[in-house]
Amino acid sequence: MIKFVADEGVDAPIVRLLRQNGFEVIYIAEESPSIDDSIVLHIANRDNRILITKDKDFGELVYRLRQVHTGVILT
């Protein structure tokens, strides 16, 4: 089963739709709003989850700074 972390900028209807379709989603807006991007990325990596985000700053972390990731979907 694919698991996700949805960054707090992701629209709630997307999270609901994923959950309704059986996907396990940690939604940062529900769990830990306003945490640092590096912590969000750490949570995704720790739990082997794909990160869903609207925040292009993750591109900086993943591509320019080459931080480890299990996948990033930019919406």
What does this structure look like?
This protein is α/β, with parallel strands linked by helices and 75 residues long. It has helices at residues 12-20, 28-31, 37-46, 57-64, and strands spanning 3-6, 24-27, 50-53, 72-74. The two termini are 21 Å apart.
Give a quick rundown of the structure.
The chain has helices at residues 12-20, 28-31, 37-46, 57-64; strands at residues 3-6, 24-27, 50-53, 72-74.
Strand and helix map with partners:
Elements: E1 3-6, H1 12-20, E2 24-27, H2 28-31, H3 37-46, E3 50-53, H4 57-64, E4 72-74
Parallel strand pairs: 1-2, 1-3, 3-4
Structural class by secondary-structure content: alpha/beta
* Strand numbers in spatial order across the main sheet: 2-1-3-4
Q: In whole angstroms, how far apart are the ends?
A: 21 Å
Low-confidence blocks of residues: none
H/E element string? EHEHHEHE
Strand content: 15-25%
Cα-atom radius of gyration: 11 Å
Q: Calculate the mean pLDDT score and round it.
A: 88
Shape: globular
Count of DSSP E strands?
Answer: 4
Largest sheet: 4 strands, parallel
Helix fraction, binned, reads 40-55%
User: Count the helices. How many?
Assistant: 4
